Amino acid sequence: MSKILVIDDDSVIRLLIKKALQNQGHEVVLATNGQEGIEQAQRLQPAMIICDWIMPIVDGLEVCRQVRANPNLSTTFFILLTARGGVADRIQGLDTGADDFLSKPINIGELQARVRAGLRLQQLSQDLQSQKQLLEAELAEAATYMRSLLPKPLQGSVSIDARFIPSRQLGGDCFDYFWLDPDYLVMYLLDVSGHGLGAALPSSLILNILRLQSLPDVNFYQPHDVLRALNESFQMSQQNDKYFTIWYGVYNQIKRQLTYASAGHPPAILRSQTADGLMEVDQLKTPNFPIGMLTEATFVSDRQTIPKNSTLYIFSDGVYDISQPDHQSWGLNEFAKTLVELETTVNLDEVLTTIQQMSGIETFDDDLSLLRVNFN
Hints:
Helix content is 35%, strand content 26%. By secondary structure, it is an alpha/beta fold.
């Protein structure tokens, strides 16, 4: 049995429709005008509304507008009763949000048939809405799990803070940092192609593999060897055409040396001061292909000496590959310039707010990860 709300200022038509629909086994609620109908709809949340077009106080089109503006009535099937038969009138009704029309004078057989058809569609819409809510709940649970995998801020001789903002509930970005031993710190950030669950699953898998150091025959102190092993294990032909970019570094705090390698990933930006107090900016990147694209790819590492009080930014391209209101891309150079101009004491949330202001956007289009590493 379905709950149907009938809105009409004509008492004869109200009773006619009520009797016809009750004979089909439906629960029928009546409203004598548009305002009363809106209030009843908000309170009862019926499966269907049958509403007269021409009424005093509030007409049928306004009732339809307000019903469609209410998220709780998103699956309610709306039928307009009208003596208007013109194409322009029907277009106006459909554009307002009506699902179907019923012409006056009412044919009882047609009324019952349209109600049956409308309720079938309403039930389908309700089922889809329920499945959508279930899927969103499961994605939210998966997103919570993904966030639980990410490391907490690091404090000490090297301090690290990070932010992760997926473009949807799940994203393909992932990062980690941990001490291989008391002197060597690993830090990396990877970005799996695509978005959503299809990107998040391989991302979490790679994180766990690197965290457990479970790649066979790999020297985890050598970034190029890690990238080689990842490339052998994650060929896109065997990963549903997914590839990923990565920046991977190992810092020796005794020698103050950072050994790093990147595979198709944006450069890390190192901000430091020279002996005479001048600001120096280096982009740390090696010319390697993304992981999984080529079976015979070779990878190389590079090395950088890290002065005291230096800051390293590691990030995914979502933080700068931004389409601005004028449809121009903001770009890496503008992003790097913004990082250099900001004080390193500024909170990373304020950094992201500044990026949004500088690039002229309200929300980021792509997954975004940003790490700030301070070398004391």
